[in-house]
Design a protein that fits this description.
The protein is an alpha/beta fold. The chain has helices at 5-23, 36-47, 82-87, 106-120, 148-153, 176-185, 204-213, 226-233, 243-262, and strands at residues 26-32, 52-56, 74-78, 93-94, 101-105, 123-126, 128-136, 139-147, 160-169, 200-202, 216-219, 222-224, 236-237. Bound molecules: ligand 48F.
Length: 263
């Protein structure tokens, strides 16, 4: 009896996904949140040959990029980040009245960042939420993950664990993973108070700088990028300008590479 098409399709999906998940239960770098900073970090690390898994709560990766500003689906980047945009093959148009600033269709930016990260070899697990961290020898050594629908429905289902040499909290404004580290591991973070300082209001130019400055390792094994870094370190928000986010992803990848190579 020949194998019906329905079975060929279902088997291919189940076996391919199982292989992917099994292969990513121990990775070099685990990125939480497929926003702009997380996706740039994922591509940069994957380009260097590291095994990278990205866990994204939503069905669609891309974070806050898709909606541009107030759902007008265009965003701005500045010249300091133009090279990163070019590396991904994403098109941009320089503003005539503000040289050094470029507009980008936000759908092209989101899809281009996702495509770039996946093509570099990073694996994105979408609809997967990070609900806890694994902690050993005074270091974050893994992520506790579960399906987002399980989380949303409040189902009493135990999670699985992914072990990693370095975690990036790229969860945006809530800095969820570092909040978990502070609350559950009860350790001091590398901030002036040892705690999360909290995001400050909008100050676009300063926010673009603090996003990159605040991108660093906050506890052994865990780094923050993007708005998460600003929340942890009391940085400013900046609205729909994305150069700082992209540069933060690059910086996070460089710091994580250094840390992984030291292990
Ligand atoms: O917020 P987000 O886009 O991260 P970002 O790289 O970029 C911020 C900008 O989009 C924007 C801005 C620009 O000027 O200020 O806000 O800092 O993406 C964060 C992603 O993390 C996911 C969330 O669904 C979003 O796609 N996320 C958050 N918490 C979790 C998570 C979690 N616990 N597990 C998995 N994914």
């Amino acid at each position: 009896m020949s194998n019906p098409l329905e079975n060929i399709v279902s088997s291919a999906i189940v076996s391919s996904f199982s292989d992917k998940l099994l292969d990513n239960l121990q990775v070099d770098a685990a990125v939480v949140g497929a926003g702009p900073s997380g996706l740039v970090a994922a591509k940069t690390l994957a380009d260097k040959g590291f095994k990278v898994a990205v866990f994204e709560r939503k069905l669609a990766p891309g974070g806050g990029v898709w909606g541009g500003g107030m759902l007008f689906n265009e965003v701005v980047v500045q010249k300091e980040a133009k090279q990163i945009v070019d590396e991904f093959g994403i098109r941009s148009r320089e503003l005539k009245d503000a040289p050094g600033y470029y507009v980008i269709d936000s759908v092209e930016l989101a899809s281009g960042l996702i495509f770039g990260a996946v093509h570099a070899g990073a694996k994105i697990f979408n609809s997967v939420s990070v609900e806890d961290v694994a902690f050993a020898n005074e270091r974050i050594c893994g992520l506790v993950v579960n399906w987002t629908p399980v989380e949303r429905l409040g189902m009493h289902v135990d999670p699985l664990v992914v072990l990693t040499k370095a975690v990036l909290d790229g969860t945006g404004h809530p800095c969820e993973v570092l909040n978990l580290v502070q609350r559950k591991a009860r350790v001091k973070l590398d901030t002036p108070t040892g705690e999360i300082l909290g995001e400050r209001p909008m100050q676009a130019a300063t926010g673009e700088i603090t996003t990159v400055d605040n991108t660093r390792e906050y506890y052994p094994g865990i780094f923050a990028s993007g708005m998460s870094a600003n929340n942890v370190m009391g940085g400013y928000r900046m609205g729909p300008i994305f150069g700082g986010m992209l540069r933060s992803g690059k910086k996070a990848a460089e710091l994580m590479e250094e840390a992984i190579r030291k292990l």
